[in-house]
Amino acid sequence: MKTNPVLWLELRIRSSEKRLWLLALFGMLVMAVVSGLVFVLFYSRSHFLNSCTAQTGSQLAWSCLGCHAAIMILLAPLAGAGRISSEREQRTLPALLNTPLSRWSILWGKLVASWFFVLWLGLTALPFLAVATIWGGPSPLVVLAGFSFNILAGLTLATLSMGLSGWFGKSLTSYLSVGAVLIGWLVVTPLLGVLFLMLDKAHKGNWGEAIGYLSFHHVPCAPLIQLCIADSDGKWDIVFPRLASALAVWFAVALVAAWMALRGIKREV
User: Fold this and answer.
1) I need a surface site. Which of 36, 58, 72, 216 has the fewest CB within 10 A?
2) What span, in angstroms and rounded, lies between the C-alpha atoms of 41 and 201?
């Protein structure tokens, strides 16, 4: 990593982009607004008499984690989309391939730089989650697990967008494909799962758990929902296999995306 010039070039370019700082500021503003609304609700007269600090800390933690997941899902794909296709459009990719760097080194440098972008966005949630934990919210391990799953989802989506960027020749096409894949993964697949669950219930079948694994548990925001439910009802024995299946699917998606990006670079040789 220290000797990869593509990585340092990408990091230098990204650190000088105003978009990086604006997106980080946007994430912190969203967290600040959500935290403010939770505290306003707590200190309102009608709610103050029937609430406690633990409930407020829990509401603050899950609200911030939900906003954090939304930021990762919406902004993490921007880290990888167009990174390879833009090189192809600017006709700089052939020159990059004529250097002593291997195709994998080029891909690795761009991929790690996109991961740094995701981590930078993700770190904006830490101060607010620390306040929620101190205020009496969920245990630090649960908060850390939710934060980690959000970061892993962002890294997976950044890798996926990088793969689509390498697969398609045009930046516009890669951006559109990323949007289509996200809609299919986040919206269409769960809707199909709901439909099949209704059919299974109507026919008194026993496929509910299998349908959940195929359509719900691997969605980028699903682990956070599972953690929230388990934190309230304590059914961790059901949640652990679902979390493990989500990680397995994300890892498989990242591997396929890396192969797509590498194949896209190979087409230029």
Assistant:
1) 36
2) 39
Its pTM stands at: 0.87
- Report residue 178 as tokens: 């990323």
pLDDT at 28: 81
Structure tokens at 144: 């850390």
Residue 8 tokens read as: 């340092």
pLDDT digits (tens, 9 = 90+) for 163-186: 888 888 777 888 888 889 999 999
Query: What is the domain count for the chain?
Result: 1
Residue 128 lies in domain = 5-266
- Retrieve residue 153's tokens: 């989802």
Amino acid at 142: V
| H, E, C per residue of the chain | CCCCHHHHHHHHHHHCCHHHHHHHHHHHHHHHHHHHHHHHHHHCHHHHCCCCHHHHHHHHHHHHHHHHHHHHHHHHHHHCCCCCHHHHHCCCHHHHHCCCCCHHHHHHHHHHHHHHHHHHHHHHHHHHHHHHHHCCCCCHHHHHHHHHHHHHHHHHHHHHHHHHHHHCCCHHHHHHHHHHHHHHHHHHHHHHHHHHHHHHHHCCCCCHHHHHHHHCCCCCCHHHHHHHHHHHHCCHHHHHHHHHHHHHHHHHHHHHHHHHHHHHHHCCC
Q: What angle do CA 98, 100, 101 make, to 5 degrees?
A: 95
